[in-house]
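Colleagues,

Please find the record for the two-part complex below.
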Amino acid sequence: MLEHDVIVIGGGLAGLRAAIEASALVDTAVISRVHPLRSHTKAAQGGINAALANAEKGRDDTPDKHAFDTIKGSDFLADQDAAELMTRMAPECIFELDHWGCAFSRTDEGKIAQRPFGGAGYPRTCYGSDRTGLYLLQTVYEQSVKRNIKEYQEYFVTSLITDGSSCKGVIAINIKTGELVPITAKATILATGGLAWAYSISTNSMINTGNGMMVAYQAGVPLKDMEFIQFHPTGLYPNGVLITEGARGEGGYLVNAKGERFMERYAPKAMELAPRDIVSRSIQKEIDEGRAFESAYVHLDLRHLGREKIMSRLPGIREICLLFAGLDPIDKPIPIRPAAHYTMGGIDCNPDCETPLKGLYAAGECACVSVHGANRLGGNSLLDCVVFGKVAGDKAAKFAKSATGETDKSLVQSSLVREQKRVEALQSGSGTEEPTALRDDARLILTQKVGMFRSGTDLEEALKQIRKLRDRFSRLRPISVDKVFNLDLIRTFEVEAMLELAEIITASALARKESRGAHVRLDFPQRDDEHFLKHTLAHCTPKGPTLDYSDVKITRYKPEARKY
Amino acid sequence: MKNKRDTAALTILRYDPAKSTEPHYETYDVRAAKDTTVLDALFQILENQDHSLTFRYSCRSAVCGSCAMFINGRYKLACSTLISEIGRDVIIQPLPHMPVIKDLVVDLTTFFEKYKVVKPYVVPIKPPPEKEWIQSPQQRSKIDDSTDCILCAACYSSCPSVWTGKKYLGPAAILQAYRFAADSRDGILRDRVELLGSEDGLWRCHTIFNCTEACPKSLNPARFIESLKRTATKETLKARIPFLH
């Protein structure tokens, strides 16, 4: 049997950072559905926040100011102790990455370069041109190679092994052989990323389907604040590929079809560098009110930055534009529209990354500590991965070290048999429903009715339709019985997760009768601190999600009106 | 930007070791609008025509390195190859000269083993400072481009020296070695050069430039290999002829 002290599910930035930390203390393995170097972290572009005060205009920056910007950006839904912890640990974590060789861009003095990002008082975003995610993922992967950390590449986790009170490991499909295998551990860390692929227009990798959140939820762990989905203002039109916020950080303009820099109307001070929820809604308003090109997109104009700046600071953006839009941003503005980008919510955990299930930890986008609250600031997600990856690895390793007792073999066996039966049931289905067609329907419903602007009637309708899709999922056509690299089977597991998560997002959104951060209810346009300054918790029951709430931790920053 | 619906024929080299010992070609008709990528078309086939088709994918934005394939005789990333730009008859093969697991999925075990041989991480000689290392923009520029490799294995698959020398590290691993050797934060240049100095290292490269032609990220691995050859020669001479110091 495959057995380790700590297993980390997910080989992105949070997962590998956790594995590096844990491996210093105990036997650690990384389990990933792809080769770790194919993880979504690699697609991050603009940078990672830390109050280093390296930039000319950022000399007065401090972790406290970073914490305040993060909390204000979150529309005061972030837990303030967690945000303070993250911003306090940020500088040391960035220096550590530099010591490991991360290819950050440099200032003239040879320090790590920093650029302005949305919602931040100072240029605080450390970057490596516009390939920061690639450089960070390389760096932590390199460190995992150096430490010879065991990897299970192309293993897709289908469920947790749990006796109801603690987590004992996972059951996973070895994609290369088709075999279901148990991998047991004293502590398990979920670092599986977000679910923005559940929306039809998304900046995300296609593997971001929320399956890690799903296995936690099915094991009884609540999912927190799932109604908060971030739409990135600048997804390339039409396919949604990410155009970094760094493009605006470097000075790019947003322009509508009438030639107006329309952000003037919505955030006259911060303009293009208002937080993402505000910029995305502004773009969508321009589109909805008929001031878009072809009624579909606006322009991100970089031409005034000049060739040299574009080539040195934004070469990856230029490459993306050339490849996917057939245009050169040196000569032409970039067509963009908002695209689903980030899951602020996720697996309920505390600042020690502990979930309510003993032995189960969560870090990165799949987790909800919560540091991002109702809206995440650009540059804070990579930081979240690094900081809480490190915390999760440390806490999980210490837990594993002190854990006693043998693995309950009958529990492992019964979990394995349950998953085998689940696969067999999918492969012997007698229905005709096409799983990916259900997925496409769900993605459309989420995009149209559970998007940037929501209403009670739309959400109720969406909930009804999603439940119908879930019902149809029980009547699937037989899924392929191939053993080796059975994409049909893996993608059916994805669809199952996406449908269930769609229901949770929608139910959570319907119950939150206020507007806060990324969650805007046209029927409840104001923030309502009296009733909704609290986290939503969705629990798994046979009848679908049931909701309750937990308090937001306030330390020093009283909720105030959010103006930019 | 309205797209005209059109079609394309995708001919794919199929191989399933569980079902047959021989690979064979199968052709599928797909819808291909102006912005349809080869990866989009593969998904159309998987979802609507043949649930057994297999290929790797992840970011679909040309950065994760999953979907390197041999498309119409060229090394390409399926996700960033527009059908409208390469013609409506598309022939897709897995990366050549690599063991095939199934269909377009190749076994990259050896590729990544060789990557790990070159010590692909910074090894500082001094304890790190309290803050970041001071690295000037000029020093940083020495590793430009070499940091942008996505390890898709296209160059490795294209290299005749890899085809004929099974132990040869190949262009991607050597590019990585360059990336660390050239980094001002690294302190083991001599060890790196020694590690690469064997006949399965640098000197197996015969400057054929297939790697440079194959790279879907337009990098130039051959340039980095050449640069390391010069460094290796210099370092070796320095070691043997003391007065050169």
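The CA atoms of residues 198 and 204 of chain B lie 9 Å apart.

Comments are welcome before we finalize the supplementary table.
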